Amino acid sequence: MSGSDAPLEKGDTLQLDITAMAHGGEGIGHAPDGRVVFVSGAVPGDRVAATVVKAKKRWARAQLADVVDASPDRVEPACPAAARGAGCCDYSHIAPAAQLGLKRQVMLGQLGAHTRSSGVLEGFDPAEEMTQRALEPGTGWRTRARLGVDSAGRAGTRAARSTELITDAPCAQAAPGLLDGLVGEGARRFTPGAEVVAVLDGDGRRHVVETTRAQRGRRVERIDTVVEGGGDVVEHVLGHDFSFPATAFWQAHAAAPEAYAGLVEKWGAGDYERAVGWDLYGGVGVFVPFIAAALGGGRVETVDYSPAAAARPQEGLRDFDLGRHNRKVEAGAADLAAPRLVVLDPPRPGAGQEVIDAVAAAAPERVIHVGCDPATFARDLSSWGQRGYRVRRMELIDAFPGTHHFETVALLQPAHSGPRGAVSERVGEV
User: Is-above-0.90 flag for pTM?
Assistant: First the structure.
């Protein structure tokens, strides 16, 4: 046990009171010397014994050794794979009723850390005005999964902070039938070193394909082998149909596309002088019908780099005035007609300054920004603030139950667009 006056070192064991949850799913405690200690597997309200695995000048990271006194929000892990060490459901040991509140505190912390001097929250208090909801179901919600394959050809979920695979237990996120016969005892074997993509599409059909294992932080979309199904999935969102390869991006939670599309149409609606909308990082174009509806008709320009998502025309979008651009968003805005409404749903690293500068230079009246990482989302909001935009609406959507992940959606408008109360009333009438 490390003494209160001794320097904190790797291998020391501490008793810590866990007071909050950090972005990334670790509990936060404080060492006797005042350093912040991040403890994986800890829950706010726990008193734990934890062994230091990394010690820095201002913080340390520790591995949970024992729960001395359990938080009232601690439960038995709901995910068999997570209980075996998989990194899939890192909130699996936290009571479902407590998860949304913890995610809210994480988001508020990131906003406080990144947006203070930008002005983007001027007139908007997220602690009081940010709405929140958790999508149902809370388990069995994932309709697509990427699995690793070990040297014996067994598919599984990767262990937390490791390339090792958990091949003998399924993840609780998987929708019923998604992983049947793919993971666990008696499961089929695959090409060692490959990745397996499994999808249950909107028609209830399962597709299983093999693809080359991606480099860390990258996504491989080329299908090497179709194992089951046709490889092309079909999805339906509020009366609109989409078809695309199983490897293309689509929201994981069965209820997520309709949730986001509904906000796009509701928050995006207004009286526009020119009916042009941009759909950035648009994927297969799921937001196109709802941007068009918000505009009251007009043209939608959708931009996405993914060949699997954006290169194929969608029959369900044939009747829309649509421009499709299969290129990077960073290079995709300069030659488009000036928009009145912009929707952007960037990947985890966020949109970044270059994209936000380009969009702001086009002076849209409304921007709907979807963020899947609270830190990069908060940094993006700060960039919007520096370009004169202000948050008018914000909603946290827990589309990843049982994990530390969530999405946040913000409506932004230029600071000169009028008093905030008038904007609230107008949006509320939609």
Answer: yes
